[in-house]
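DATA SHEET
Item: assembly model
Revision: 1
Owner: S.N.
Input lines:
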Amino acid sequence: MNFQQMILTLQQFWAAQNCIIVNPYDTEKGAGTMNPMTFLRSLGPEPWKVAYVEPSRRPSDGRYGENPNRLYQHHQFQVIIKPSPDNIQELYLESLKALGVDALHHDIRFVEDNWENPSLGCAGLGWEVWLDGMEITQFTYFQQVGGIETHPVSVEITYGMERLASYIQEKENVFDLEWVDGITYGDVFHQPEYEHSKYTFEVSDVKMLFTLFNMYEQEAKKAMDQNLVFPAYDYVLKCSHTFNLLDARGAISVTERTGYITRVRNLARQVAATYVEEREKLGFPLLKKGGDL
Amino acid sequence: MAKDLLFEIGLEEVPARFLRAAMEQLKEKTVQWLEQSRLSHGAVEASATPRRLSVLVQDVAEKQDDVEEEVKGPSRKIAQDENGNWSKAALGFARGQGVDPEQFTFKELNGVEYIYVTKSSTGVDTASILAEGLLGILSSMNFPKNMRWGSYDYKFVRPIRWLVAMFGSDVIDLEVTGVKSGNVTRGHRFLGTEAVLSDASEYREALRSQHVIVDVKERENMILEQIGKLAQEKNWKIAIKDDLLEEVLFLVETPTVLFGTFDPSFLNIPQEVLITSMREHQRYFPVLDEQGKLLPFFVTVRNGDDRSLDVIAKGNEKVLRARLSDAKFFYDEDQKLEIKDALSKLESIVFHEELGTVGDKVRRIRKIADQLGEALQISGTEQEYVSRAADICKFDLVTQMVYEFPELQGVMGEDYARKAGENEAVAKAVFEHYQPRSASDDLPASLVGSIISIADKIDTIVGCFSIGIIPTGSQDPYALRRQSQGIVQILLAKQMPLTLSQIFGIAIDVHAQFREMKRQGSEIRKDLEEFFGLRVKKLLSENLRYDVVDAVIAAGFDDVMSIVSRGDALMNAVEGGDEFKTTVESFNRVSNLAAKASKAAVSESLLQEEAEKELHAAWLQVQKPYSTALEQRDGAKALGILGELKPAITNFFDAVMVMAEDEKVRANRLGLLAQIDQGLKQFADFNKLVW
């Protein structure tokens, strides 16, 4: 099964579970969790079911396209369901079957892994799912998002697409993965991997990035003054990505690090709290539509 | 009549590290409830797999035991007036107990008469109280971490997905978070299906038929047996670390052992790195040859049967290949880093906000270590090694390998230091200075390593104490207890003639040279003494009776070698028999009277009786050899010398009237006893011994 078929299969599978299928969010982010479809929508009492692919940037993981396993940008397939359904593990295992992974002929385990994203004030409990010793999925019950205790609890399933594909396609090197017939992952992503790594580690303008961080922070605050949650959150994401670029460049000392993370977290908390208030003003519209979206 | 009671909590996969304690807790709480409920019962067996916690109790009575209970009410004085009429208090008591005042009886307690009622309650049917009991047990379960799920407010270790609650063949009806109890358990996630139980007693066998080995010990034996067979077949040594076995045990419901291989070229990386990567990341058991050398194989335990083991081995090999490639990359990269560059990076790693960077810490360790070396009068060459080892002991913290595997700190440092051409003694010390890393870990083998280890640990302890981080109860985030214990152990093992106060003094001075101290040195020292006192006590208590420990500690523990020697000698003597008991009795008579003395001075001219002159002479005679023996930390010899005083002491008390009429004579006699008492108390407070 090629990469594209895997994405289509998962989309189809979760669409059949009444998830809305949305497209990747257009602001840089380190993980699918940071997409407002997850970060904001997992807050408050409204039910929510969504699935999407998220290209996720981790500047410090950039390896100039030379490492067979590490990438500046990888792909996550993300599922969020609120409230978490009782049969969610079974659904997940069925989705693996849809990808051609028959549990009887493999060793599948749920190994404890508690997830935390301190810069967004998020914490959850769950597992990493192992397929014959390889971590292919993060499976998390959100307990806290943006510093707010979640109720009801959302379950998040994050498939690591490259890892899963390297297993399914039996490839050692991520760049050899088949995206579609005749086109490899490398054909599509090798050049950007190299260039982004070079930019991140050698070229980026540290002074400008610091300035940008401050400007983004200011803009987020300005938007928050008007209770404009979504624009404010976009700038929080920009702050976070800018911080990641600076961090990868080694421009932030250990002592300063906590300070920057706290600044991002404070913004995220404020956005989260205001989002819930704004939804309440609207009367939590999705609540009225009942269980299934 | 009795029936079996079964309670199974079906869960999404529970963290392996919680399961054993949870299983024991479930058992304990069940037994406790049965006993409180006056339900007689037979054997209680708890079990756990990743997806379930269960308890099966054999032969639970179908009815509670009947019971007669006496309830005490107010005293007769309060309950009745002079005319024998019941007071409000008495009537209230009767109402509260649901009895008629006619049923009151009177009984005396400590000379006061009280009213009593005797209530007999007939035991109710077990079936009628089980639901409430089991729910109580369920909601009282404690876990290190709990979670919420769905729309429920209930907190538990992981979501509850099914419940089996049966008394004999009957289902006990419970409901929690939308899950209703029944007689249906779930088998292995992939190999099994549901199983309907017609009686609680079928539990284990029903699960076995659905590919779940519910008994923990049985799973453990299966794993060990399969590993043993494989090892024999291949002529391997498979290194089984208990905590890994424990974890694996709770990751599987049907264990099947399999092995895989990796490219032998990875064996160029230090063995510890490969083993750590296999264990920590993948939960694999490493494979060794007869000589303990790592072989390019690994052993893992699959949660399932022996289907498609080749596919699974291949998958695991692929993962390990990526892991080891990463490790190799880090290993090669790290060696490009020069030690001096690594050291400069330590300046930007914060050790603790108030205690500065790791660079600051290293400078303090260097100073402390140098001074310890001087105090120990080590050779010039050794002193050089100490200085160099102190300077570089933390450099590997900035290597990629240690970033990836923090538990390899020191291990990598030793390897990299040797490769960078450092002296062997220095390289070894870089590793050894972390020892002992746990209560059961080895101590540093070399002198240089021991000195750096003490310096590093006392720096942390004094640093923390100086900013008010002093362990209390279970709060000890910097593992200061373990570190202080490590210092004491090293002093003993290396027979280092250093006192604790010397070490405290050096470390406090060094801290004061480098930083502004918020607390007074004397205050810190007081806390340190108390803290180390407890460690010494704990260490002594491993081999000695508590009263012996108390006795020798009372004579001071500043010199730990001395206290151990005194403790051992006293323990031997105490266990040696009655002879010593009479010796101690004579010492205690000395001490008890000495307490009455106003000062410990003797004037020879005031000594009148022969017996007191003899005692004084005897005391003068032993004084010198006694203090020499103490200085040499020869507890047995010192105690032997004290023993020589016994006849003179006995004689003294037989013949001399201590509390003489003449005030001066009396004071002089007490003064003599006080002198001897001071001497005794340098060894121990013999009064603390219990016979």
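QC remark: Chain A touches chain B at residues 67-69, 83-86, 89, 93, 103-112, 114, 125, 127, 131-134, 141, 143, 150-153, 155, 166-167, 172, 253-255 (CB under 8 Å).
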